[in-house]
Amino acid sequence: MIGRTTEETNGISLLGNQGTKYEMDYNPSVLETFENKHKGNDYFVKFNCPEFTSLCPITGQPDFATITVSYVPNIKMVESKSLKLYLFSFRNHGDFHEDCINIIMKDLIALMDPKYIEVWGKFTPRGGISIDPYCNYGQANTRWEEIAFNRLANHDLYPEKVDNR
Predict the structure, then answer these.
(1) Which of 1, 34, 56, 57 is deepest in the core (most CB within 10 A)?
(2) Per DSSP, what are the bridge partners of residue 78?
(3) Active-site residue 56, yes or no?
(4) Which residues 6+ apart lie within 8 Å of 123 measured at CB?
(5) How far apart are CA 42 and CA 133, in angstroms?
């Protein structure tokens, strides 16, 4: 890959692969990482995923959401195509909105060990109610742990105007 050594991109198999298989059931094993070349910098990486779907665990009806993942990388970073395939794997997964968002965050923590991460789901209304679960995490015993607490404590003080999504 241009700009990266073979050693730095070792383990990335999905990007550029024309034979991509879309998993139809929850599968965190599709996630891949690459090395953060800027470990000395703290910076955010933000993914906006407007086509997330999962299933209601009770009715089996589809739920649609925009998932936002923001994180401050440590040593590893998530490769975006693998993240897309991972999120796609929720398509037939039956879980409540809050569970999906927490599962996504925990899988990404296990994968990358980021300094900080937050995951926000903005689900379209069903039954006249939209649900927007938010979770975050900061590495223990670092300033990011305090930042995570403060961000959660002050989260959504001024919610956006909900206009039926």
Answers:
(1) 34
(2) 33
(3) yes
(4) 63, 64, 65, 97, 130, 131, 132
(5) 26
- Name the more confident of 71 and 128: 71
Sign of CA dihedral 49, 123, 121, 83: negative
Instruction: List, for residues 107-145, the tens digit of each pLDDT value.
Output: 999 999 999 999 999 999 988 898 999 999 999 999 999
Label each residue of the chain as H, E or C. CCCCCCCCCCCCCCCCCCCCCCCCCCCHHHCCEEECCCCCCCCCEEEEEEEEEEECCCCCCEEEEEEEEEEECCCEEECHHHHHHHHHCCCCCECCHHHHHHHHHHHHHHHHCCCEEEEEEEECCECCECCCCEEEEECCCCHHHHHHHHHHHCCCCCCCCCCCC
Q: How many residues does the chain have?
A: 165
Name the catalytic one among 56, 107, 113, 132: 56
Which residue in the list 25, 42, 49, 63 is annotated as catalytic?
Answer: 63
Burial letters for 10-39: b for 16+ Cβ neighbours within 10 Å, e otherwise?
eebebeeeeeeeebeebeeebbbbbbbeee
- Residue 150: phi and psi, rounded to 5, are -65, -40
